[in-house]
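anyone seen this seq b4? input:
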Amino acid sequence: MVKRRRREKVVKLPMRYIKWTIAALVVVAVVFTVYDVHSKYSTRIGVIRVEGDIDDFRPYVDQINAALKDPSVRAVVVEVNSPGGTVDACFETETQLSELNSMKPVVVTMDQYGASGAYLISSASQYIFAHRQTVTAGLGVIAVWVSYENKFEKEGIKYYRWLSGELKDEFAPWRGPTPEENAEIQQLVNDLMNELFNRIQSHRTIENIDDLKDGSTVYGWEALRYNLIDEIGGYDDAMEKAAELAGLKEGEYLVVDMANPPSFWSALRQSL
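predicted toks r here
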């Protein structure tokens, strides 16, 4: 007796069901992506970059204020690569960053340079990283008056001036300072230096700070000894520390450049 094999019946789904299934899966994937991006977009760590000579505080203050007012920005990492700048620009940036630091964690990472006024700005944070060979400190104030008075006299160049006040042409290149101006400018430099050190010490305790009042620079590995920095490290370490201080875990936040923060839809397009 020969047994016949039973043929298995293959059920074919209509094409429209397959299309609807694929469409449903795509919709689910998009919904989950949107939810994930929205969750991360509403929890962000901002990045502010301080680079080169600091002679204008407005770009930095604008970014600081944006981070302060944005509830989705939970912490800020400040990348510093600057030898310093003008007194006004550095003092104002430090003042605004200090206010931000009182509201949200601010972590600084210093690159090749973080000296003079750039260090002042860096000090207005909760934690500072630097590389072993980062050049930092260089604390102090300098004023320069270049006079071509002797050159003008030698070349027979005469100048005439009409002033509304005796100090209106202070720092003019056609003359040097009077004894009174010399004393006043030196006093101003001394006062600003004291203000600089007072501001730094209001943020952190510097060990053997008198050793740094000669304006000398130190490397990152030496800065640890003075408590100028907290740890040797770089950008990734600073980002990890900022997340820790904000109570965030990896994958729970987006990193945004405060100079050009992306919109929600831009972040979504990058994720799709």
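Residues 28-40 have pLDDT under 50 and may be disordered. The beta strands are 44-51, 73-82, 106-115, 127-130, 135-137, 217-219, 231-232, 254-257. kinda curious what u guys think
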